[in-house]
Amino acid sequence: MATTATQSAPTLGFLTVCEHEGGLFGGYLVLNTNGRPLEFHCTAPVRPNRAQVILYGPTLKPYLYGEQIGQALLEKAKSQPLLIFTDAEAVLAVRDFIEWPVVYVPTAEPDPPPAALEAVPSGLRVDAAHAPSGAPHSAKLHQFHMGPQPLAVLPNHADDEPEIVRRWQPYCADFDVQEPFGRIREAIDEARRSVRQP
Asked: What's the pLDDT at 195?
């Protein structure tokens, strides 16, 4: 009986991607609505090869963050969360492959472009004519607020907003959605340190 209650209790997913010298590392943390961890998964380093950087062009980051890393992490999870939060905008691409709403939690500073994605000299970029004209990518997102917290979803999933509001409303006043991302980064750093130790 206790196991069933635990499994049916509401959970929240937090998914992010961190850049390190070895590549991109994804982390997925599932918490109950009191902030207690229930699951944690992380990826091995992912680094695009030169051909991928050239051929994927501006679509590489959403492909790596959302399709490759995000999907791999969510497939490992046992819990079905109310919502999945991310602080890495490109992770939103995973929404096209899953049934749960994915919510972007903007930070004060925009995501820096990963060094792994800048590895090809500009003269070799075939997408230069299609590069953004200086407008931030987040301007293309469907943005809304829950209290003082700005949130966003992909424009093609703007109809997720009412469902997000409905699911998140009971918890938003007492839950800091930025804090779990710090836990994920620290856990990834710890995992990397333990792998390097003899």
From this structure: 65
Q: How many residues does the chain have?
A: 198
pLDDT in tens, 151-189: 999 999 999 999 999 999 999 888 999 999 999 999 999
CATH number belonging to the domain at 10-128+176-196, selected among 2.60.120, 3.90.320, 3.30.420, 3.40.50: 3.30.420
Q: Give every residue of the chain whose pLDDT is below 70, as ranges.
A: 1-8, 108-139, 195-198
User: Cα 41 to chain center, whole Å?
Assistant: 13
* Contact indicator for 23, 43 with CB cutoff of 8 Å: no
Decide: 151 and 144 in contact? Cβ < 8 Å. yes
DSSP 61-81: HHIIIIIIIIHHHHHH-----
Q: Hey, where are the domains in the chain? A: 10-128+176-196
User: Rounded to whole angstroms, how far apart are CA atoms 32 and 35?
Assistant: 5
In this structure, what token pair is assigned to residue 48?
């695009």
The angle formed by the CA atoms of residues 118, 121 and 188, to the nearest 5 degrees, is 20
Q: Is residue 122 classed exposed, middle or buried when 0-12, 13-18 and 19+ CB atoms within 10 A define those classes?
A: exposed
